[in-house]
Design brief:
Blueprint (H helix, E strand, L loop, with lengths): L1 H7 L3 E6 L2 E6 L7 E3 L14 E4 L4 H10 L3 E8 L5 E6 L5 E6 L4
Parallel strand pairs: 4-7
Antiparallel strand pairs: 1-2, 2-3, 5-6, 6-7
Helix pairs in contact: 1-2
């Protein structure tokens, strides 16, 4: 929870529903979603590659990700007309792409 709060620079709140505890990512700024703990479903090198919007602050997001225990798999690099991305493995072992339309 703290990892996503720091890297995305958004609020993350804990909720409970029918005995399941989960964290909700604030979505007013375009990011959104829920974090549900299921360690048995973490796929380190396979599975989906989730893109997270860090528009205008990709380098700051990579720095914050490293400070929160992430491993940088590919540093910030251009992806043609689609802007820039960095690939990381988050503090829980998930592969993620941080995406921004600008290199800033």
């Amino acid at each position: 929870m703290k990892f996503y709060q720091e890297v995305l620079a958004i609020e993350v709140s804990v909720h409970e529903f029918e005995g399941m505890v989960f964290a909700v990512l604030a979505h007013e700024g375009g990011n959104g979603g829920c974090l549900v703990r299921k360690p048995e479903e973490v796929a380190r090198d396979t599975g989906i590659l989730l893109y997270l919007n860090v528009h205008g602050r990709i380098r700051d997001a990579v720095t914050k990700a490293k400070n929160q225990g992430a491993e940088v798999l590919e540093d910030v690099h251009p992806i043609g007309p689609h802007g820039f991305r960095a690939l990381i493995r988050d503090s829980e072992g998930n592969r993620l792409a941080l995406h921004s339309e600008v290199d800033a």
